[in-house]
Every structure is written in C-alpha cells, then in structure tokens.
C-alpha cells in the first residue's frame, strides 16, 4: 500500500469543447469560444476554485487533419497560459512545447516569462512531437526517427536547465547608490557545446520563482519511460486498466530510484475522462448520447494518425481486421498503438466499438458512473501504486468539469485524499516537489 | 505642409527604469520591479488612460553586457504583452522579435495568440538582430552579414504573412447539427519553398482579428529603409534634428509610393525622450541630475557595442579621437554609428559630452523643456513631413511618463493633434491602417 498521507494531484486537461471527439456537437458545448481566451480563463478559475493543482494544455506545431470535423484548433499554450496566469492566483499552468521544433534559447525565455508572471506556477510538458506534418512546417523532409528525437530532447533539457540556472538566486544586488544592479560573478554564460546545440550566454532575465518550470513528460515507450525516469517531475500517461497503470508506475519509479532520484519527486498522473450523473444508468446514457454524435470518418482518420492503419472502406460493424495488426510495423506513437492493439485483442472489438472506445479520450481511461463510483476509482488507483493523482479530461466542457468539481472533488476531500485549500503558491509546492538549486551555485559551493 | 487632419500617433516605449541609462539610480525609479509584471501593466494602463496608440517593447535574444551597471534585463516581449493585454482593453501592443533567430512557424503562433487574446491589438517590430552575442545563443559562430540577415528577413515576412492568411476570414462554419466546424476549402496549406524556409501547412488557429499584426520596423540603413518601404506599416527611427527626420521621411515615403503602396499606410515615428518641468531651467536641472548618475564605464561599453570603438583608457574630457572615426569600418548598427559620428563631427564633442548625449536614449532625440516646448516640437515635427507621431521614451519611469501624459498630451489634444478618445478597438484602427485581406481569398476571387 502506497503512503496515502501525501494527497492526490488533480489537473484539469483543457481541450476546446471537451475531450470526447464529438463533444463540441453536444448541446451545451460552446465551440464558437474555441479562440475566446475568457472561455479558458473561466475554466481555470473553476479549477482554481476547486483547488486543483494545475490546468494542462497539449500542443503540436501543426494544424491537425480533419479540422472540418471539430474545433481541433491549437492556440499556442505558453501565451494562452500567460493570459490565464493573470486571471488566476494559485493554480499551476502546464503547457506543452516541443524539443524538436523550438530553439532552446527561445523556449527558456517564454517559460521564464510564464514563471515570473504567474509567481511560480509554470510547468513544461516536454514532448518530442511525432506528427509528420509538424516536420513539414519546419523545413524538414520527414520527422526524425524516434530515438534521435529523444537524443535531441535530452540535450535540449540539459541546455534549458543550464539557462534557467544561469542567474544564481542571489545575483541581484540593486544598489542605486553604488550603481550596482547585479553581481556578474553570479550570472553564468552556460558555454554549452553538444551534438545538437551550441549555446553560449546566460538568460536575459533573473532566475524565476520556481528556479525551473516543473518538468512534465508524457511518453510511455521504452525511450519515453527512460527519459521520464531521468528528467520528469510529473508524468501524464494513458492506461485502460489499473494493472497496466501499476506496472507502469512501478517501472518508472524503480528506474528513477536506480538513477538516484527520490521516487516521490515524480508525480504519475494517468488520464481519466469521467461521465458523471446521479445514477450509473444516467451516466451511461449521457455517454451514449455523446457517442451517438461521433462521425466515423473523423474517427477513422484519428485512428490512422495513431496507428498508421487506414480503415476507410471497411465494414464498421465487422471485427477489427486482425491481419492489419499482424502486418503492422511500429511507428511514432508506439505506446498508444500498443494500447489500441491490446484493446482490440483482449476484447475482440468491431471497428465501430473500437472507435467509440477511443472517441472518449484518445485511448485514455473513460468511465461512466456516479460521483461515488468515480471517487472510488480515483481512490483505488491513487492509493495502490497505480497513480499519484490524475489528469482529469472532461468528456465535454465546461459542464463535464462542473460535475467533477461539484460532486467528485468534495468526496475525495471528505476521504482525506485531496486538499481543502492550497498550502503553497507555486506548482512545485502543490506537487510537493523541491525547488532546484542553480547548478552553477552548487558548483561554486563545491569548489569553494 | 503635410495634411494635419490625420492625428498624430503616440506610443509609449517601455524600458525598465526608463530610457536614460542611469535612470534606474534616480530616486523615484523602481529597479526592483524590473521583473514585476504589474509594473508594466500599470504603465500600460496609464498609457491607455492617456489614449496613446500603443506600448512598445524592444528585444534581443541575449543578455546585454554590463548587466552589473543597470536593469538591462529583457523579459520576452510577446508573453509580457499578453499579460498586459489582459490588463487593458484598447491600447496597442507592439513587441520586437527577431527574424534571424525565430522559426517562422513558432513566431506566427505567438503573435496570433497575442492578436486573438487582445482582440486585435498586436504589432510586431521586425528586427534582424545585429548583436553578435545573440548568434552565439543559437549555435552560430558569428552573426550573419547585414545583407544576408535582410534577405532572410524578407523571406521570413513572406512566410509569416502566408501563415497569418492561411485561414480565410470566413473559414469557420461551426454547424453542430451537420457536424462541420470549418470549411477546409478556405484553409490553405501555404506550401512555401524558398532559399531560407520550407513551410508546408496552415496555421493552428483561425485568422486573428487584425488578419496580421501591424508590421513595425526600425532599421534605418539603406537595406533597412528599402525593407521598411516594402513591408513596414510603422517605422521607429532615430533622429537628432528635424532636417534629418524630414529627409528620412521623404525618402521612405517616396520608396513606398514607388512600390505602389499608399504612403499614408506607413506611420513614421521618431523616438523622443523628454525631460519635462514647469520651467525650462527646471527641466534642464532634472536632466543634469540624472546625467550626474551616469557611470562612464557602462557608457563606454555601450558606445563600443554601437560603434565597435573601445574608448577605455582615453581621457573623458579630451575631444573624441578623430583618428578612430577615420579608421572605422562600418559594421552592424550602420545608421546609428553614422548618427554618432555626425554628432561628434558637427559639435566637436569630448568623450564625456558624447556619452552624456547618448545616455539619454541611445541616440534618440533628447530634449528638456516645458510642456508647451515639448508640444511645440512634437507639433513642428508632426505637421511638417518629419514624423507621423512619436515613440515616447521617458528618461525615467514611471514619473517621466506621468508628466508627459498629464501635461503634454492635453496640449496636443487642445491643438487638435491628438485624439480625445479611442475611435477603434484595434491597433490597425488607431494607426489608420487597413485590415489586409487574406492573400488566399484574393487569389481565389481573382481566379473565379
């Protein structure tokens, strides 16, 4: 039994309209607000009122295919979170940005701003971006192979960590009379030279409240897990069963411990997409209602993006064609593809059944039930070594989150699993993570 | 005489502590707030209360030398302006970003966010970045030559214009019943292939309120002028005399007209740094007080950055050594270097006199006087073909701007030279600029 004195983490993963791919067609959805910043600020304020740890934004630097079928727009997360930062005061702000398509020096400046502006609430979801259409937006003829993307990512994290550390915490002097603003001996050119990057100077601003943004990671392939074990302070992961989540949890925490890290300094957060109603039957009916809005042409294109398998023209009500799985060679989304194939194999699904299973949250755990049932699941996963909390992915927004905040969060609170109020002003504080020292300050102390 | 029915443009150029290099040491300065976003939000609110057109932020992706001597920190402008956007409702938001060190696809997303979040108030100050220490932060062994930077800049502007145009204005359908979010025939992969960039896809979000941010430019070299005449909708420029400003104004507007552009669609805005007091003597005394806080070691390093000439060790009170000018070979900041040499030649300055002249606003026009005198200068320049308005660079902040807003702006208003209130909600509206059609929509109409 995992120690339960430490409370669960709950993030709100915001996706315009909701996470169910057809949610935007649901009566209460507001797809016309997908570019309206107040839609997102309102959601973040609700999440803050419920004392959640953070809001979370996915991203990729390309317009998704099939925009015809839904508001799959992608506002740039760091600017979006900056506008949310100004409208809130406590909630964490986690944004996704790609190590494959940013220059480290530009990215550090953006996140340093977010951390300064928010008073220490920034988190960076580190992704390598597998989508090929992103490569085409950056002059590349094809995406880089998986292993090479992770090699670049590791060096990228090394570079940006140095940059965020380049001003020691006590570098500022601000002595008007003496005319000294900063102690230059405590500001360090990083002098990084590596296979992917050469970066010489220090950051353009003093160190931010958290030192570095919280490092979040979402890859679950072997390379992704090993990267996460080394660098991640929170992990967003997809599991259909508690057993799968437990195996992942044990593996990543063990890998982290083997690297000399404290396993408590990694928060493992599966996605959960809950349909909530006062009876289980009503919750299932709600799910059915939204499932009925699914557009198979879109779902099949999504499945092709995840797995590389194109089911256009197949009978939706026939069993998923096993030979396509047998012939499949693994590509980018390896762990998600595996999850989908496991689903097909273990449950013998038809194509229509599979796309309904994936429509809810793209492979994340979808559940329909009463508030108590949802709370039971969260408790079961969160107290038995399957999760340190969850990334909550409401099927539709904003109503799907309202139900979670009003009915599930209070139960978790009664059970002593979730905070009554914030006890910290930073995301590191909410997550129970240490604030890293500047590596340059440490180096100086060691050599002194 | 230029048409005066069109009113003057006034921007507030924000620089932490103020534009005078020693202002942060002045009693009323608040250098400890240089990373406090509320300092900037407060200034922007004051500028908005005075009905100014925009706030303006400079930038370069490197920490300036000699940070010891003053708060020359550089918060990333787009995030900073996003936080300001949320705290204001009308004022324009102009941020500097470098075409040499950004990927076009990343930059368009950031400015599209700012324009969406602000409801159409974004402006982009397009710079090529001459500082060598920026190149070292992006893996380059040296800065690119001036001409090559401008070639890349021109293609960069071409690419980002296509991306900002990639969604036609009426691409959104949002029909829940039919399941159609967007009309894909009105969203265009840009398919750009050029010597510097290959970018295939469309932007990740619908077209922003202004279509494109306002294009601002600040280069005054021949290459800079020619670039500005082609692309700029506002130009930030440095002149020590009305004659120099008039020559520049006539040249750029003529070049624009020769390219088939409407010269009224370029706002030419010299910098002005005014010391304001109720008598001219008091204003001069104020200037003297702040000049007395100058640290020559810093000024000499600034001068070296501008001109490449290192005066360390020279007698500050001896005439500027003419042989150093004679031996000089032009580098990056060509137009600013020329301005400095002209100053030395025409006025026979000592080194100390020169650094005092430059300390105020790095070569921009510095003046001390009564509110009436300042207003007279602005009127003279702004109604005689020298300027369409000014980038106001208060010597110290926030007090230096308070005096301008409280005492100079009302005089300009009385004279019919400046708006009583906003008549538009966008920066394009404030500047009297048209909203560009999407080039793809135009192409379709032409071919129809």
TrEMBL record, chains A, B:
SUPFAM superfamilies, alphabetized: Bacterial luciferase-like
One of the record's GO molecular function terms: oxidoreductase activity, acting on paired donors, with incorporation or reduction of molecular oxygen
Listed InterPro entries: Diverse_substr_monoxygenases (IPR051260), Luciferase-like_dom (IPR011251), Luciferase-like_sf (IPR036661), NTA_MOA (IPR016215)
Positions annotated to bind FMN: 59, 96, 146, 150, 220-221
Keyword terms: Flavoprotein, FMN, Monooxygenase, Oxidoreductase
Ranges of residues in domain Luciferase-like: 35-386
Pfam families assigned to the protein according to its UniProt record, in alphabetical order: Bac_luciferase
Gene3D superfamilies xrefs: Luciferase-like domain
CDD domains referenced in this protein's UniProt entry, alphabetically: Nitrilotriacetate_monoxgenase (cd01095)
Source organism superkingdom: Bacteria
Family membership noted in the UniProt record: Belongs to the NtaA/SnaA/DszA monooxygenase family.
Record's protein name: LLM class flavin-dependent oxidoreductase
């Amino acid at each position: 039994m995992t120690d339960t004195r430490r409370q669960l983490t709950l993030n709100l993963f915001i996706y315009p309209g909701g996470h169910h791919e057809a949610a935007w067609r649901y009566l209460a959805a507001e797809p016309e607000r997908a570019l309206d910043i107040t839609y997102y600020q309102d959601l973040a304020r609700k999440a803050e009122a419920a004392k959640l740890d953070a809001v979370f934004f996915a991203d990729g630097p390309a317009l998704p295919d099939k925009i015809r079928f839904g508001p799959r727009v992608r506002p740039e997360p760091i600017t979006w979170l900056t506008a949310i930062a100004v409208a809130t005061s406590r909630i964490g702000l986690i944004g996704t940005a790609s190590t494959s398509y940013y220059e480290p020096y530009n990215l550090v400046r953006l996140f340093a701003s977010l951390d300064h502006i928010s008073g220490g609430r920034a988190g960076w979801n580190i992704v390598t971006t597998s989508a090929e259409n992103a490569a085409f937006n950056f002059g590349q003829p094809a995406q880089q192979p998986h292993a090479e993307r992770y090699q670049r990512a590791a060096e990228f994290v090394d570079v940006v960590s140095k940059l965020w550390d380049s001003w020691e915490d006590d570098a500022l002097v601000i002595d008007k009379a003496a005319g000294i603003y900063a102690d230059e001996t405590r500001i360090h050119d990083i002098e990084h030279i590596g296979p992917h990057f050469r970066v010489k100077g220090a950051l353009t601003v003093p160190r931010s409240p958290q030192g570095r943004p919280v490092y979040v990671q979402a890859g679950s392939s072997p390379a992704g897990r090993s990267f996460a074990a080394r660098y991640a302070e929170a992990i967003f992961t997809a599991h259909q069963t508690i057993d799968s989540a437990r195996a992942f949890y044990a593996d990543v925490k063990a890998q982290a411990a083997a690297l000399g890290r404290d396993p408590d300094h990694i928060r493992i957060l599966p996605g959960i997409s809950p349909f909530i109603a006062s009876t289980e039957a009503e919750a299932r009916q709600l799910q059915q209602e939204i499932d009925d809005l699914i557009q198979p042409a879109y779902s099949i294109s999504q499945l092709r993006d995840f797995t590389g398998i194109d089911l256009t023209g197949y009978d939706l009500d026939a069993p998923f064609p096993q030979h396509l799985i047998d012939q499949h060679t693994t590509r980018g989304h390896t762990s998600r593809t595996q999850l989908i194939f496991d689903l097909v194999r273990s449950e013998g699904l038809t194509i229509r059944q599979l796309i309904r299973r994936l429509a809810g949250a793209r492979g994340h755990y979808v559940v329909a039930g009463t508030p108590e049932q949802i709370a039971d699941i969260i408790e079961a996963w969160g107290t038995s070594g399957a999760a340190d909390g969850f990334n909550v992915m409401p099927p539709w927004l904003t109503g799907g989150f309202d139900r979670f905040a009003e009915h599930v969060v209070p139960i978790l609170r009664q059970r002593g699993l979730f905070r009554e109020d914030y006890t910290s002003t930073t995301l590191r504080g909410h997550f129970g993570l240490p604030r890293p020292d500047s590596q340059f300050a440490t180096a100086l102390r060691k050599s002194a």
